[in-house]
Amino acid sequence: MKIPFSPPYIDDSVxxxxxxxxxxxxxxxxxxxKALEEEIRQLSGAQSVLxxxxxTTGAIMTLRWLGxxxxxxxxxxxxxxxxxxxxxxxxxxxxxxxxxxxDFNISVDAIRQAITPQTKAIIPVDIAGWPCxxxxxxxxxxxxxxxxxxxxxxxxxxxxxxxxxxxDSAHSIGSRxxxxxxxxxxxxxxxxxxxxxxxTTAEGGAICLNMPEPFDNxxxxxxxxxxxxxxxxxxxxxxxxxxxxxxxxxxxxMKANMADVNAAIGLAQIRQYGQMLERRKQIFQAYDEGFSRxxxxxxxxxxxxxxxSSYHVYALRVKGVSxxxxxxxxxxxxxxxxxxxxxxxPLPMLTLFRQMGYSIDDxxxxxxxxxxxxxxxxxxxxxxxxxxxxxxxxxEAYNVVMGKGGK
Length: 407
Fold this sequence. Notes:
Structural class: alpha/beta
Number of helices: 16
Strand content: 5-15%
Strand order of the largest sheet: 1-9-8-5-4-2-3
């Protein structure tokens, strides 16, 4: 039974929405982007939402708006995808990596130890859709001694008066923290709408704005939207009107906008996301039930103490295996046409970051989580039969590799 890892969810409603965009004669940024922004705003509870062409671009643009520079530091987890660090680098600041906890997510204690007068932002990451401890993180940045340590280096930072928390919510649209959906629990949160995410626009991202007073999040939306269109005073739709060709460039902008033809995919998906998310949860629970009978299996967190996952991927860990044995188990699983993955190779293990001086020896929990993690497929199209097949295939692969039985 061939089981892919994460195919996009494309049904008749998605095809119809995309076809409507194509036939409208307007395929770049327009009404469907606005409609998707409103759907995400309602789902997340954010004050304002701006859709852009990727999570990475959205993060770079957000950090540039904040005004970070070469002397500034942004704290990120060592256990994340490279985009988290690359966004900091391309924005012109220095990524400061800290270790994670046993639940995959950034350690709040490690954040505290890493804060210096150069710290301007923190980017926690919701690995596999499991929310970070945002109550603790938001409390930390508002502690008097931490605020006193803060040294702003831009007018925006002066207005903020403390470290900004930018949630990397790439995996976590639809997750919950403290009874609220992800996207409203920090100053700014950024969703990914990439092809493999729970809601996709093929490529895309969404910036959720929740900045505290004195910031006006509706005005900030307008400012960032302008920035996402090269700081051009007229968008393409306005310029296309008769006599509307004249425009100005009023800042150092970027080309970061989302197109309507992309937004159409996400618009159709998010309108049925409740059912899609419930199916992901059912699959997660079926995996929990299946692997709970395996003494070697460490089940991923999914729901506890006011937190609930978006059930993006099932991050299974295998007790007592080396990295090489984990890789052999993956190879054995793959021989049976079941696609699995690993989330993630810690940043210090990647060539770029090793060359920059980061060492995995400084992040023991990140390596501990990584070397025995196998990400299993979790998406609405999976049938109960396929889920059962994944459990059986993984268990048999473990037995083959670890010498505890045959197929």
